[in-house]
Amino acid sequence: MITVTIVRQSADDKRIVSFAIEGHAKFANPGKDIICAGVSAVSVGTVNAIEELAGLELPASMKHGWLQSEIPLQEDSSVNERIQLLLESMIVMLSTIAASYGKYVVIRQHYL
User: Fold this and answer.
1) Annotated catalytic residue: which of 16, 17, 25, 36?
2) Within its chain, how far is the Cα of 95 from the centroid?
3) Interatomic CA distance for residues 56 and 47, integer angstroms
4) 24 has catalytic annotation
5) Which Pfam families does the UniProt record give (predicted)?
6) Against a cut of 0.70, is the pTM above it?
7) How many Cα atoms are found within 13 Å in the side-chain-facing hemisphere of 69?
8) Given 18, 24, 37, 40, which residue is catalytic?
9) How far is 83 from 89, CA to CA, in rounded Å?
């Protein structure tokens, strides 16, 4: 199972401060697993989009079946808004995958 963990600042300040994605769906054999491929494309694509569109290289660590990043607060509020929009978009895309394949993907969100 793939577990997506989203950490938000607080119930009042819903800013995403970190995320972690770990595990394997085991929906199909490695290389043919559309769920793992979809989750990987969405999550790595989001990290790349943040770097390209917000100009922030996220402190991310990635290994086989693992992607984690802390989201540093930027001085420029428009950059923070862009980053948060991209992260919220990632959650929507991952939630869409989980809605169809909930047996293989779970999304957890909590506050600091």
Assistant:
1) 36
2) 10
3) 9
4) yes
5) Peptidase_Prp
6) yes
7) 20
8) 24
9) 10
Q: In whole angstroms, how far apart are CA 36 and each of 43, 62, 89, 97, 107?
A: 11, 14, 18, 10, 14
- For residue 8, what is the enclosing H or E element? strand 2-8
Catalytic (active site) residue 23? no
pLDDT at 7: 98
Q: Could you report the average pLDDT of every consecutive run of 10 residues in the chain (112 residues)?
A: 98 97 96 96 98 96 94 97 98 98 97 96
CATH number of this structure's domain 2-111: 3.30.70.1490
Give the amino acid at 91.
I
Instruction: For Cα atoms 98, 17, 86, give the angle at the middle one, nearest 5 degrees.
Output: 60
- Both tokens of 18, joined, read 């970190």
